[in-house]
Amino acid sequence: MSELSCPNCGAPVPIINKASVYAVCSSCKTLSLKKDVNLEKIGTAGELADDHSIIQLGTQGNYRGTPFRVIGRIQLKFELGFWNEWHLMEGDGSSAWLGEAQGSYYYTKLNVGIPTDKIPNLEGDEDPIVIASGRRERITPGDSFYLGENWTLKEIMKATCIGGEGELPIGFQTGYEAVLLDLASEDGLFGTLDYSESPALLFSGNFSTLEELNLTGLRQEEVAYNQTQIPAKSIECKGCGASLNQFSPDFSKSLACEYCGSVMDTESDDLKIIAKFDQVSRDNVLLPLGTPIKLPNFPESKVIGVLRKSTEVDDETYTWTDYLLRYRGGYAWLNENGDNWTYFEPLAGVPKWAPGLKRIFQKRSYKWFANSDSNTDFALGEFYWKVSAGEKAQLEDFISPPYMISSERTDKELFWSKGVFIPFDTMKSAVPLDTASKLRKPEIVGVCEPNPFKIRLKRNLWVAATLTAVFLVFQVYGCIKAKNQIVYEGKFKYVQTSTPNAEIGSSNFRDNSFVTDVFELKGSANENVEIQIEAPNIDNKYIFFSAALINEDTDTAYDTSIETSYYHGVDDGESWSEGSRSDSKSLAEIPPGRYYLRLESQSDFPEGWGSVYNVKIIRDVMSPAPFFLFSIFLWLPLIYTFFRSYSFESKRV
Amino acid sequence: MWNFLKGLVYPFFAASLGLGFFSDYTKGGATTDFEEVNQVPKTVRQNPGIYRSHYAWFTRNFPGGK
Questions:
Q1: Start and end of every DUF4178 domain (chain A) (predicted)?
Q2: pLDDT of A623 higher than 80
Q3: Domain final residue, candidates A396, A423, A446
Q4: Domain, as residue range, for A419
C-alpha cells in the first residue's frame, strides 16, 4: 500500500490497489487523478448520504471462493432511494463491484468480452430508445438483448451521482446523471448497462445474498448479525397532523398516512408530501400496520405497508390487498385475495420460458394462469419506494400449487416474485389472537391453493398402478403354477322331452337328469374345479344346466348352473349375435376325493329335437376373471377423483 | 385432519380389494357363486332325479325322481 498526499489539503490518501486511478480524500472530499506518484485534483466529491449501509471501506469478504476488500464507493440516487456501488479489490488485484440496493446485493465485473459495436446505443433519458443493429426501438422492461447472454431488461432507471469515497478505477462527477439498464438472464445472472460512458459499459455477475458474501469488518455488525432492531420513528403527518409510526426508518422511502392518504417522502428532512390518495379506507385491512407475522419457515416480520389494488375484467372489478412485510435483512409481501393468503418473496432473475406457456424456475415448471392490469387504489404505511396514487402495472401469474410466480411490469421495471399459498389455519396461528379473530375462512379456491383431489389422485394412481402390478404378478404366477388337469370328459346328447321352456319341477317337466361316471379329484383342498360345457351345434337355442358336483364319499354337493345359449340374426340390415355356445364355472376350494357330476337340463328346443354337448371337468385352473374384476373396482374410484380434481381446478380464481 | 382421513379412504379400499384378490387367489382364483349342500341322498347315483340340484332360486327337494 502506498500513501499519497491530497493535492487540496495535504492529508494522506492511502492507495491500496496499484490499479486505482482515482481517489477521494477522506478529509476534504477532493477527487484526484493518480499520476505516477502524485495526485492531481480534478473535482470535489459531494457529501455521502447516510443510507444505513452496513458496508464500509475496509470491509472484507469472500464471494464463492474469491476474497475481496472494499476500497471505494460511488453513491447514486434513483427513484427508489440511494444505491451504492462498492468498488472491490479481489485477491489477485483485479477490480469488481458490489451493488447494494434495498437489501439486495449484486456482485459484478466489467464485461470486456462484448465488442463495443454490439452494445446498443441509447437516445433520450426519460423515454429511452435503444438503437441496436441499425434499428431504433423504444425499450420497455421485459425486452430481450443478446450480449453474450440472453438478457431480459428488468429495470430502466436514471441515476444521479451523489458522491464517492476511497479508490476507484473510474472518475465521476457529483450530480452527473446516467441511464442504467438492469438486466437479468434466465440462468440467474445479473447485468447492468451503464450509459454514463459511450459506448455503454456492461457489468455482469450474480445476485448475491448477504450470507454468500461472508463479510467482516462491517460498519454495523450488530445490525447485520446481532439482531438489533432499529427503533421505530414517530412522524407527524404533513397532511393532517396525525401521529404516525415509521417502523422501518432504515428501509422505507415513503410513508402513506392512514388517516388522510398523504404520502410523504421520508428521505427528505421536511417530509415533503409527494402524493395523495383520494380515498383511504381501513375497511377490510385485516392486518393492521405493525402486526407481527410469524409464519413457519419464514423470518419473523412486521406489516409496515398496505396496498389495496384492483383490476377490471369483463366490467367487473376485482380487488385484493398486498401487505408489505419487513424483516431484518429483507422484505416480503403477503397477498390477501378472497380471504386466501399467499406469501411472496422477491425473485432474483427471470424464470425461463418452456413450451406450453410455462415458466421454469429452480427446476419447477409453472403453468400460465392469468394476465391482468392492476391499479393502486390506496396505500397505508411505509414503502421502500416513493409510492404514488393510481400506480398501474401489468401482472402475469404462473402457478404450480402451492407455489406461484408473478411478474409485475411497469414502464420502468419488471419485478418477479415467488409466492407460496398459506393455509387459513397457518395464517391464523401466524398473527396475534385479536387479528386472527378477524380473519375470515375463504369460500373460494385460491390462485395457488393446492388441489387436494389432484394430490389424492396422484397418490391413488400410484396405489392403483402398484396394486394392479401386484395382481398381475400373482395372476401370471398362478397361471404358470396351475395344473389344468382334465379329470373327466364326456359327450352327451340333449333331446327335448318336455314342453319347451317348461320350468324344472313343474308338472309338464319331464325329468332328464343323469349322472356321469365317477372321477377322482387329486391335489389340495384349496384347489378349484372348472366345469366346462360346450354345445357346438346349438343355433338360436339355449340349453340350461343345473349342475351338482357330488362327492361320493361325503355326500356333499356343490351346486351351480351353466348355460349355453347362442342367438343371432339380422335387424335393419345389421347382423347381430349374442351368447356363446360354451360356458364354464370354476368352483373354489373343492377338497380331493371321488366325485360325479349330476346334470339336469332345460331348453327351448321343440319336443324330440336337441343338440350334442361336451362336458369337461378340469382340476386347478387359474381364471383371469378375478384379476379383471378386482382391477375394474380398483380403478373406478379414480374416475370420480379425476372429476373432483377437474372441478376444483375450474374454480381457481 | 379431516382431509387427511378422507385421503385414506381409497388406500383402505384398495387394500381391502388387494386382500380380497389375494384371498381369492389362494382359493384358486374362482369367483363363481355356488352352494354347498351336505347329506345329499346316497341313492343319487342310481336315481339322479332324487336330488334336484336346482341352482339358487329353485326349490330343492330330495324325495322326487323317476
A1: 56-190, 310-423
A2: yes
A3: A446
A4: 233-446
Residues A598 and A632 in one domain: no
Is residue A221 assigned to a domain? no
User: Domain limits at B42?
Assistant: 1-55
Share of chain A above pLDDT 90, in %: 49
| ipTM attached to this prediction | 0.79
Q: Judge whether A228 lies within some domain.
A: no
In angstroms, the separation between the Cα of residue A635 and the nearest Cα of chain B is 9
Where is the domain boundary, A446, A461, A494? A446
The answer to whether B54 contacts A546, with C-beta atoms less than 8 Å apart, is: yes
- Is the Cβ–Cβ distance between A306 and A323 less than 8 Å? yes
Interface test with B, best of A600, A631, A648 (most B CBs within 10 A): A600
Same domain membership, residue A526 and residue A476: no
For residue range A491-505, list pLDDT tens digits in order: 999 999 888 777 766
> Does residue B64 lie in a domain region?
no
pLDDT at B49: 83
Give how many domains chain A has, as a whole number: 4
Q: Is residue B60 part of a domain?
A: no
User: In this complex, which of B3, B30, B54 lies closest to A528 when CB atoms are compared?
Assistant: B30
Mutation target to probe the A interface, by most A beta carbons within 10 A, among B3, B12, B34 is B34
Q: Chain A contacts of B11, Cβ < 8 Å?
A: 459-460, 463
Task: List the single range of A224-233, A289-298, A327-336, A518-527 with lowest mean pLDDT.
Answer: A224-233
Instruction: List the grid coordinates of A203.
Output: 457489468
Average pLDDT value over all residues in chain A: 88
Percent of chain A with pLDDT over 70: 96
Residue A384, amino acid: Y
At A109, phi and psi to the nearest 5? -135, 155
Number of neighbouring beta carbons within 10 Å of residue A206:
18
Cell numbers for A415: 419485478
Residue B64 is predicted with a pLDDT of 34
> A617 with A531: CB under 8 angstroms?
yes
